[in-house]
UniProtKB/TrEMBL annotation:
Protein name, entry field: Aromatic amino acid hydroxylase
Metal-binding in keyword set: yes
Organism ancestry: Bacteria, Bacillati, Bacillota, Bacilli, Bacillales
PANTHER family reported in the protein's UniProt record: AROMATIC AMINO ACID HYDROXYLASE, PHENYLALANINE-4-HYDROXYLASE
EC number: 1.14.16.-
Region span, Disordered: 473-493
Domain Biopterin-dependent aromatic amino acid hydroxylase family profile: 1-342
Protein's organism: Effusibacillus consociatus
Length: 591
């Protein structure tokens, strides 16, 4: 599905995000994968029916998610389109700003892979269980999906740092290594240490980190309702067999939700959460994300926002009070004696836009070396230049073909021959001058040899945010897929044999549930063959035994074989303590 629209959706994938979209390749899911999905979903339906937010169970049905089979994303996409959302598959962890941008456009980005049996209870890697079964069901709640879209919009406009990117790459590496069956203990340890170093290198909490923390403690690990008896709504909890149960125990501290508490609390994706925040309702979350937005550069504007754009060292959009948008990498600011920015400069490809639409002739191909413009009022004139009428322009000499000198209150001086004036919606956006020079206190900011001077007009900077204004034309540089790709494992002979056994049991269950008249002896023959081969080739396969026992228990047949399977499962629990809770949870559903 790369560089294509998802099918049957009421929303479209912006071109700058299509680079992250991949094919689901449903045919690549194995019978083992299906068994893992089925185990987790049966557990979740049993436990979360009482402990999850009321929207969960209904949301599973309405979002196209079943218990028996891994969901088809195209079908999910069609179901979600009924509420104006969509779904696409991506390759594992994508950059947080891209993930947020998908949600801002009402699209769930769903990791196509599924966790291994070894990580059935929890995986640090995003997978289809987490993304589909965790995020999608609650989205059917109108207030919650409003919050999800709004935090996506805020997150997409929050500046990140270089250190944030290093942490992202380290997390992605760890998630890939931990889900790689061929990874050695040393490789996992090295990836964990790499993440630890990246986290320690972060000395300042960026805007993106604040949004990420709010997202983590709400969308991923949020609780809702009463502090003493909360319900689950966070996707990380709804998709984790282990943590969905353990999170409600007393050793996990429950804290009343507040924005400040969330953005001041960091998190570790590799460990169970030691504390969780309980909101009273989704309205409280919406209020919080509005409050957080007011703390960010895109709302604050002014010199503060320009400094954030400069520190990001990446494509950013600066918005003047006239409405003109300058998209490029801010590399230099001229400040006056009070520390206020009076001139900005970008380096490299830059584009000019208005209302998120690129101005004709002012794309990054034209401004490929950069752009620079003053900020502020003209000296001795209280009316912002962008508000000047034609008569006022003429009074200061701004007439096409005429020489003009513009002296700004800041001390910046612009001289040249007026070539053109661009207005939009009653405001002057851009003046283009020939044979122009721009100076400030003896420093040359622009000289005529460089060509025509395009001067953005605006008395103030009202906003700055990461990425380009017209993303479709600019193909913003803030969203780059990681160079690390998930490893696609080829099944060896042992894995093929194991998958064949799981497929035999899956076929048997589907046959019986479809109304087949298989006799007890025929069922016994199939189960006996799988059990014999399983004991020979994969003696530690607990989930296979559990699935066989489920079929027999549901029909109350072959008690001796049931007893033997239970004994084998009890033996596996004694031999491997990590399996005890998983097997006990599975057995509990048979009662």
């Amino acid at each position: 599905m790369s560089l294509q629209e998802p099918k049957n959706s009421l929303v479209s994938v912006p071109s700058h995000l299509r680079q992250f979209v991949v094919e689901q390749h449903y045919e690549n899911y194995t019978a083992v994968n299906q068994a893992v999905w089925r185990y987790v979903m049966r557990q979740n339906r049993f436990f979360l029916g009482k402990k999850a937010h009321k929207a969960y169970l209904n949301g599973l049905r309405e979002s196209g998610i079943g218990v028996e089979t891994i969901p088809d994303i195209e079908y999910m996409n069609e179901r979600l389109s009924r509420i104006g959302w969509g779904a696409v598959t991506v390759d594992g962890f994508i950059p947080p700003e891209a993930f947020m941008d998908f949600q801002a456009h009402r699209i769930l980005a769903i990791a196509a892979d599924i966790r291994t049996i070894d990580h059935v209870a929890y995986t640090p890697a995003p997978d289809i269980i987490h993304e589909a079964a965790g995020h999608a069901p609650i989205i059917l709640d109108e207030k919650y999906r409003s919050y999800l879209q709004q935090i996506g919009e805020v997150g997409a406009k929050a500046f990140s740092s270089k250190e944030d990117h290093e942490v992202y790459e380290a997390i992605r590496l760890l998630s890939i290594v931990k889900e790689d069956p061929t990874a050695t203990t040393d490789q996992i340890k090295e990836a964990e240490e790499n993440l630890e170093r990246a986290v320690k290198a972060v000395t300042v909490t960026s805007e993106a980190a604040m949004v990420s923390r709010l997202y983590w403690w709400t969308v991923e690990y949020g609780l809702i309702g009463e502090l003493h008896d909360p319900l689950l709504y966070g996707a990380g909890l709804l998709s984790s067999v282990g943590e969905s149960i353990s999170c409600l125990q007393d050793d996990v501290k429950k804290i009343l939700f507040s924005l400040e508490a969330c953005i001041q609390t960091s998190y570790d994706i590799t460990k169970p959460q030691p504390q969780l925040f309980v909101c009273k309702d989704f309205d409280q979350l919406i209020e919080a994300v509005h409050e957080l937005g007011q703390k960010l550069a895109f709302k604050i504007g002014g010199t503060y926002s320009l400094q954030k754009a400069l520190e990001s060292a990446n494509t950013a959009t600066v918005v003047y009070s006239s409405g003109i948008q300058v998209s490029g990498t801010v590399t230099e600011l001229e400040l006056d004696e009070t520390g206020e920015a009076i001139y900005l400069k970008t380096t490299g490809p830059t584009a000019l836009a208005f209302n998120n639409m690129e101005l004709p002739g002012h794309g990054k191909a034209y401004h490929h070396e950069g752009f620079g413009s003053p900020i502020g009022l003209l000296k001795g004139i209280d009316t912002p230049l962008e508000q000047f009428t034609d008569e006022q322009l003429e009074s200061i000499g701004v007439v096409t073909g005429r020489n003009v000198t513009l002296q700004f209150a800041s001390g910046v001086k612009v001289e040249g021959i007026v070539n053109s004036i661009i207005r939009e919606s009653g405001s002057i956006l851009l003046l283009t001058l020939d044979d122009s020079t721009v100076t400030y206190k003896g420093k040359t900011l622009f000289q005529s040899e460089w060509g025509p001077y395009d001067m953005a007009v605006g008395a103030a900077i009202v906003s700055a945010y990461p990425g380009a204004a017209d993303k479709e034309r600019f193909e913003t540089g803030t969203h780059h897929p990681s160079k690390l790709t998930s490893r696609r494992m080829e099944m060896d002979e042992k894995e093929q044999r194991r998958n064949t056994l799981y497929q035999a049991i899956r076929d048997l269950r589907q046959c019986l549930e479809g109304g087949s008249s298989l006799s007890e002896s025929e069922i016994d023959e199939i189960i006996s063959s799988v059990e014999l081969q399983g004991n020979t080739h994969c003696p530690e396969e607990w989930l296979l035994r559990l699935e066989m026992l489920e079929i027999l228990s549901a029909r109350n047949i072959l008690p001796q074989r049931q007893a033997r399977l239970r004994e084998e499962l009890e033996g596996l629990m004694k031999a491997n303590g990590e399996l005890q809770q998983l097997i006990e949870n599975g057995l509990a559903l048979l009662k």
